[in-house]
Amino acid sequence: QSLQQWEWIIVNDGSTDPETLRFLLPFRSADSRIQVLDIPNSGPSKARNVGVAAARADLIFFLDSDDLLAATALEQLAWTLISHPGSSFATSWTAVFGGEHVRSRRGFDTRYAFLYDNTVTALSMIWRSAYAQVGGFAEHIRGGLEDYDFWVRCAAAGLWGHDIHTELIWIRRKQQSEYGGYGWGFQNDLATMPTFRRTIRAAYPHLFQDGLPRPVDDPGPQTAHQIVEPTPPFRNQLKPIGVRRILMLLPGIRVGGADRYALDVAKGLSERGDRVTVVLTRSDEQHTWIEELRRSTSDVFDLPAFLRAGDFPRFLRYLIESRAITHVWISNSILGYQLLAFLRAHCPHVVFLDYNHMEQPFRHGGMPQLGVEHSELLDLHITSSQHLCQWMHARGVDEQRIVVCTTNIDTERWRPDAELRARVRKELGMSETQSVILFAARLSAQKRVRLAAEILRQLRDQQVEFVALIVGDGEDMPWLRAFIQRHGLASHARLLGAVQHVRVYELLVAADVLLLPSEQEGIALILFEALATGVVPIAADVGGQRELVTQECGVLIPPGPDELGAYCRALQQLLADPDQRTAMRQAGRIRVVEQFSMPHMLDRMQRFLDHAAELARATPRPAVSTGTGQAMAILAIEHDQLDQRLRRLPPARLLLRLRHSSFARIGGSQTQRLRMFVESADRLIYVARRSIMRVIKRSLGRSYSP
Question: pLDDT class for 115, splitting at 50, 70, 90?
Answer without folding.
Answer: confident
